[in-house]
């Protein structure tokens, strides 16, 4: 007479599957953002009446620009490896509001994927007599 080992094997496989998937829990953005992030690229996209006209991509060298998010809502800005300034931030969904005392601006579409973060700023820029909408996309790596 054969012993039924199918059930214990299936139970073991299910337990292994659950233990592996439980290790990959997503960290909330508010926790994942804490730390120092070094800017790698800045992509500027210029549009007129929602039609892309031209774009530039800037590549940063090591230590050119970095942002350090603290757990208390502080943001330290570094340029060329030196502390440049201190700001504040608040997070609402995937939008960061950066405060500098008298003014504030927003970084939208903040996404962290492993050790990379990206965000978008939008503005307008007057060139000659034409006002362009500008979307600036930054990508950074955690140091």
Strand order of the largest sheet: 1-3-4-5-6-7-8-9
Distance between the termini: 62 Å
Order of helices and strands: HHEEEEEEEEE
Count of distinct structural domains: 1
Helix content: 10-25%
Low-confidence stretches: 6-23
CATH topology label: Lipocalin
Structural class: alpha+beta
User: For the CA atoms, what is the radius of gyration?
Assistant: 22 Å
Per DSSP, the total helix count is: 2
Strand content: over 45%
- The CATH class label is Mainly Beta
Tell me what the structure shows:
15% of the residues lie in helices and 59% in strands. The protein has 143 residues and is an alpha+beta fold. The chain has a single domain (29-142), classed as Lipocalin. An 8-stranded antiparallel β-barrel has the order 1-3-4-5-6-7-8-9. A hairpin with a 2-residue loop joins strand 5 (82-92) and strand 6 (95-99). The model is unreliable at 6-23 (pLDDT under 50).
């Amino acid at each position: 007479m054969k012993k039924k080992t199918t059930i214990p094997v299936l139970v073991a496989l299910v337990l292994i599957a659950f233990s592996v998937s439980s290790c990959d829990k997503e960290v909330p953005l508010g926790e994942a953002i804490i730390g120092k992030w070094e800017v790698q690229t800045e992509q500027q996209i210029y549009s007129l009446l929602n039609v892309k006209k031209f774009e530039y991509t800037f590549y940063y060298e090591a230590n050119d620009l970095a942002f350090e998010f603290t757990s208390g809502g502080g943001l330290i800005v570094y340029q060329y490896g030196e502390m440049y300034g201190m700001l504040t931030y608040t997070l609402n969904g995937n939008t960061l509001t950066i405060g500098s005392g008298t003014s504030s601006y927003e970084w939208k579409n903040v996404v962290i994927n492993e050790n990379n973060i990206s965000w978008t700023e939008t503005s307008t820029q007057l060139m000659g007599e034409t006002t362009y909408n500008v979307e600036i996309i930054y990508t950074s790596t955690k140091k």
